[in-house]
What we know:
Elements: H1 3-13, H2 25-34, H3 39-42, E1 54-62, E2 66-73, E3 88-95, E4 98-103, E5 114-120, E6 125-128, E7 134-138, E8 145-152, E9 161-162
Parallel strand pairs: 1-9
Antiparallel strand pairs: 1-2, 2-8, 3-6, 3-8, 4-5, 4-7
Helix pairs in contact: 1-2
Keywords: Dioxygenase, Iron, Metal-binding, Oxidoreductase, Thioether bond
Cofactor: Fe cation
EC number: 1.13.11.20
Amino acid sequence: xxLKNLIQDLSSSIQETRTENxxxxxxxxxxxxxxxxxxxxxxxxxxxxxxxxxxxxxxTNIKTHSNLLVLVWEPGKQSNIHGHPNTHCFMKxxxxxxxxxxxxxxxxxxxxVLKRTTTxxxxxxxxxxxxxxxxxxxxxxxxxxxxxxxxxPKYEAGSGVNL
Length: 163
């Protein structure tokens, strides 16, 4: 099973419409689980910017409204607490491990309520939407971590993105 095959399978699975009912969450999760990370298949997408906590790198756009990115996480660094408004975010750990802190989406910014902390080792998968909560991702190790993210609808470019 190759990254190229995964991209083809994801493309077949993802519908053109952006409604939640048309995103086959279980099917996408299973496709990501089935793919076993092989560094030689994704290393060309794993560009680093050591000045940022993590670097986003576009792998491909899937259909007209989804994209697949490789994120490289610097050792010991983390994201801000954030949501994914009107977006399905699927993630697979390609190298190392990440720690996800999930926060209650109804709690106020000044009084965040931590729901759970999960450690995600290599080849594990995760899924988040704002309905499930806000989250914060962290690389708790002394080595880089690399993750694959599928955004439906697609992630729009911002600072620190190699698209």
